Structure prediction request, 395 residues.
Amino acid sequence: MKLLSPLLLLAAAVNASILTLQSPKFTIATKDGQQSRSEPISLAQKPSPLHLSQTDILKLTFQIVDKSSGNGVQPRQVFLRFYDEESGEEGIQPLRVASTGKVKFDLDMSKPPLSIPPTSTAPLEVSLFIGGSTTSTSYSPLKMDLFSLHIPASHPVPPHPDEASFHLLPEIEHTFRPDPKLPPTFISAVFAGAVIAAPWIVLLGLWFSLPSLPLPSLASPSILPFTLSIGAFEFLLYKYWVELKLGDVLFYGAILGGVTVFTGRTALRAVEQRRVGK
Amino acid sequence: MAAPSSSSSSSPVLSLWKAYHQNTSDRLKFIDSFLIFLMISGIIQFVYCVLVTNFPFNAFLAGFSSTVGQFVLTASLRSQVNPENKGVFKDVSPERAFSDFVLGSIVLHFFVFNFLG
Prediction:
């Protein structure tokens, strides 16, 4: 017995109860009661598309029953879905169910409910969704396509302000500053010559106007190495400008710096001797 | 009363010039010519930048700052070497001033070549 009860529960769950509709019917009538169309809704074959005008009222009635027992059921969730296949707009209308399972719904086109989606000339597919178990039994959910409905077109939906950001955005075109232009070669050559030549002319002119160039005898053996090391530094910097990398320059510079310290000390000591001795 | 500065031989500018020539030693005039050389070089580069183009800008900055920096170093060498300033620079011998000048010039040249591109 103990092993049998879980199996019975499993069997009950597998055979969950099934809902069905009893006597579904729709009626299209005008306000003054004139009925233009009244048909039962066949669950096997969809009726021909319905057409509603501004003054029509669509009345929908059916009863939700348990398929096996035939008793009325009052599920908690009963919805009518209006779906426009072309634009993808849909509207959901909850329906009120009596305790006996009877449902009555009126769609008055002169006062359309808020659940109707914006429409164009395309038809709305109307389907019924039933779900939710009652307290005692659980029913498998039911979805049923009822009919196609043509209603008057609404105003077009104003586009959402953020609509554009959900589509492909226009390609970004960058505008760059135009490349700087070089001046004409002649002018640039004239100024290059001026910068290089003119100051040197002035300098040499001034130097040779002095009665005696106050240079210490640069070629003397105590001073020449110093001059050469300074010249070597300038040569190293020229090489740096042309081809060397920073690490190499610093390495060679350190070596040359050490050498220059020694040559400098001898040279300047000699100059000082000469100055003091004088 | 100040004498008119156009024709009189005792005009201030002219007497300044004469005093400079008489009282400055040849060594200092040697350094002064170098200062004038640097000034002219800097002025011509600046005039080019203003008149023609400042492209490439880094080259202008490197060249101009090399003249300005060298001018500063040479001016400080001149003031330290001038025998009339010996009272101000008691601890700095002219040789020490010259070695400072050489070191400063080498560092300046290094930075200028870095920026020259």
Notes: The interface with chain A takes residues 25-27, 29-30, 33-34, 36-38, 40-41, 44-45, 48, 52-53, 55-56, 63, 93-96, 98-99, 102, 106, 109-110, 113-114, 116 of chain B (CB under 8 Å). The two ends of chain B are 57 Å apart (CA to CA).
